[in-house]
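Reply to thread "Modeling small-molecule complexes from scratch"

Following up on the discussion above, here's a worked example others can learn from. I took a protein sequence and the SMILES for zinc ion and predicted the complex. Inputs first:
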Amino acid sequence: MIRKTISLLLAALLLLSLLSASAEEEVSAAGENRICLLCGSEYPGGACDACGAVEGLWECFDCGIRNCLPACSSCGISRQDSVRKTAACGNLLLAYPAVRYLAARQDAAALCALAGYYRSGVILPRSPESAAACLEQACEKNYGPAFLEYGRELDRGDFLEKDPRHALDCFLRAAELGVAEASWYLGVYYAEGVVVTRDDARALEYYRLAGEAGDPDSWMSLAWCYAEGRGVERNIETAVSWYEKAAEAGSAMACDYLGYCCMTGELVPRDPAKALEWYEKAAALGSARSMMALAVACEKGEGMEPDPAQALSWYEKAALAGRQDALEPLRRLSEKEDD
Ligand SMILES: [Zn+2]
Ligand SMILES: [Zn+2]
């Protein structure tokens, strides 16, 4: 008897979920214009006004084949999965139609991504209002990364209007939803007394929380608290061990800073050879500052014999990573090379 009741209940629940799913489909199909999966344009139905693609046409992310049916005729991937892969591919131009398509269906990650388009002005015109609207919709879905992104924008204030109080709320909500970096921001707000009363001990706790939740740079902030004696008794040894933990966890900033410490003798005994090891790790993690430091070390022969060819190569990498100050030495050394 009980079993029967349970199975009836399950059947009813299943039916309900099916009904609500199809209702959702209908809303997105009838209420909104369709989004072309080839060009990302909105059109009322039939064929895309912009590129002429017939309704439902999509391109498989994996094999590039165009399909009309819900599964790829070559590899069998579903349209939905292919669209998700495309939206997450990291190439702004390629991802755009998929992002628009998913955002129109209220997908939180896609709404967040769409806000990024409105911010960068790539494809879509720059629009703070539209970006904020996208982020708000994504937040309504309780999507943690949207709260983090919204908080960051409100904190920076160079695109959306600066609003630290609202930013703080966003960071709190994102942290609740398990976004590690949000706890780091909370740490900064308490350390600097932004909107809240300055509380170094609390800042320290937030940094620790963020580090434990997987934000490697947060161990660096924790190390800084120990090095400066903020919220805790000053302890250089502990500070260095936290810097090393940050470096191990993949913080480029921490590797770079440890390189700097070894090169200058700050916090640790001077050791140029060791400094180069840290700089190389940081450079591999994308630190332009470390690329520059390596270039200078190679040119001047710090911790190694001078090596102009190697210096030239690091200056070039640093310039490509955005270091303006690498351009002049790059020109100077390449002229020497030409002689
Ligand atoms: Zn189109
Ligand atoms: Zn395929």
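What I'd highlight from this example: DSSP finds 16 helices and four strands in the chain. Strands lie at 34-35, 42-43, 58-59, 66-67. Questions welcome below.
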